[in-house]
């Protein structure tokens, strides 16, 4: 599967989202960070904004839920027509049931792990999900530094996915830039989220191309 680039609008101009979507036309997805000020110490946007983004976005929407009680709230995001909905393992009581609910609503189901959450307890769930998100910063804010300590976790999940012949994507989110994307790709990630690196660039399209090229050349 080709490398995919999913720019995060967390670093976009929230007063000009339609124009900000245009800047990332060359990407594969738009990554939308939903934060509830409980699961993480930041508050962003919720269901009405995601509904509208799904309607107007030229790219499929990749929702990253950083919210408590995912079992209760995540299915509603799948009902917006978002193509991918990722919830945090730490915020779900019944991750298998929830993943099935997301898929039943037509979304790809993603499972996210905070940096301190080991992947081993979740390896048996890989059959039930479409993507595993390895957070490479503490969730909550853009612009933080990539945590190299997450590289072994990426490598572990990639090895298990390949050994079992599964088609589960491995996403990385946090601190992805031209300096770090190759390491993430080498370890086995194939979906790259980048917020500040893309939106902080004068030429977002060129930055997306650069990230794609680096990741493809270092693809596991
Ligand atoms: C952080 C969010 C990320 C954020 C990444 O909790 O989940 O998607 O936008 O931002 P950068 O790429 O700047 O680290
Ligand atoms: Zn995110």
Lateral strand order in the biggest sheet: 1-8-7-6-5-4-3-2
What is the count of DSSP helices, taking H or I runs of 4+ residues? 8
Q: How many separate domains make up the residues? A: 1
Run of helices and strands: EHEHEHEHEEHEHEHH
The largest pleated sheet is described as: 8 strands, parallel
What is bound: which ligands? D-xylitol-5-phosphate, zinc ion
Low-confidence stretches: none
Task: Quote the beta fraction.
Answer: 15-25%
Task: Count the E strands.
Answer: 8
CATH superfamily: Aldolase class I
User: Could you say which structural class the secondary elements and strand pairing correspond to?
Assistant: alpha/beta
Q: In CATH's first tier, which class applies? A: Alpha Beta
Terminal CA distance: 11 Å
Overall geometry comes to globular
* Rounded mean pLDDT score: 98
Please state the second-level CATH architecture: Alpha-Beta Barrel
- The value of Rg in angstroms is 16 Å
CATH fold-level name: TIM Barrel
Helix content: 25-40%
């Amino acid at each position: 599967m080709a490398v995919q680039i999913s720019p995060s609008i967390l670093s976009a101009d929230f007063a000009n989202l339609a124009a900000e979507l245009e800047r990332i036309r060359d990407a594969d997805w738009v990554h939308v960070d939903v934060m509830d000020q409980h699961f993480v110490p930041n508050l962003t946007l919720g269901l009405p904004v995601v509904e509208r983004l799904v309607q107007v976005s030229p790219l499929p929407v990749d929702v990253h839920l950083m919210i408590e009680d995912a079992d209760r709230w995540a299915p509603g995001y799948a009902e917006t027509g978002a193509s991918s909905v990722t919830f945090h393992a730490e915020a779900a009581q019944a991750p298998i049931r929830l993943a099935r609910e997301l898929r039943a609503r037509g979304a790809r189901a993603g499972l996210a792990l905070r940096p301190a959450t080991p992947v081993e307890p979740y390896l048996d769930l890989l059959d039930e999900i479409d993507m595993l998100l390895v957070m490479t910063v503490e969730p909550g804010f853009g612009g933080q530094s990539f945590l190299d300590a997450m590289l072994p976790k990426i490598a572990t999940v990639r090895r298990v996915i390949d050994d079992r012949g599964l088609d589960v994507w491995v996403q990385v989110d946090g601190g992805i830039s031209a300096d770090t994307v190759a390491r993430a790709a080498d370890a086995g990630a194939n979906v790259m989220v980048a917020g500040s690196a893309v939106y902080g660039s004068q030429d977002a399209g060129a930055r997306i191309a650069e990230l794609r090229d680096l990741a493809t050349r270092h693809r596991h």
